[in-house]
UniProtKB/TrEMBL annotation:
Gene: gcvH
GO-annotated biological processes: glycine decarboxylation via glycine cleavage system; protein lipoylation
This protein's name: Glycine cleavage system H protein
CDD domains per UniProt: GCS_H
Cofactor dependence: (R)-lipoate
GO cellular component: cytosol; glycine cleavage complex
Annotated source species: Bacteroides graminisolvens DSM 19988 = JCM 15093
Length: 126
């Protein structure tokens, strides 16, 4: 299983990658493996400012719907439009083409509570 070192992780299985003033958020390879085939991604919160831990959308698989949680506080700038036509990108490339949202982290966004790759790996192997 893949745990990119440059990412930070949550115990709810989201990842975040900061690039300059924006950050990309998605779900981990472990999460998409556990969920199975993703059939729909719903992110109705574009433009909203949310706090860490808030639900920003849902992922639907054949038998269930799972909430998606903000790793840090910020404003949602954009959702990955490619997922409207191809939600399976989350399964195929969860750390690349399958990203979910792009945010502008708030000034008080706390990245220190996030897990590094080694810490995240320990949480899923317990």
């Amino acid at each position: 299983m893949n745990f990119p070192e440059e990412l930070k992780y949550t115990s709810e299985h989201e990842w975040i990658r900061v690039e300059g003033e924006v950050a990309y958020i998605g779900i981990t390879e472990h999460a998409q493996n556990q969920l199975g085939d993703i059939v729909f991604v719903d992110i109705p919160t574009v433009g909203e400012e949310l706090n860490a831990g808030d639900v920003f959308g849902t992922i639907e698989v054949v038998k269930t719907i799972s909430d998606l949680f903000m790793p840090v506080s910020g404003t949602i700038l954009e959702q990955n439009e490619a997922l409207e036509e191809k939600p399976e990108l989350v399964n195929q490339d969860p750390y690349g083409a399958g990203w979910l949202i792009k945010i502008e982290p708030s000034a008080d966004a706390d990245f220190s509570v996030l897990l590094d790759a080694k810490e995240y790996k320990k949480t899923i192997n317990e």
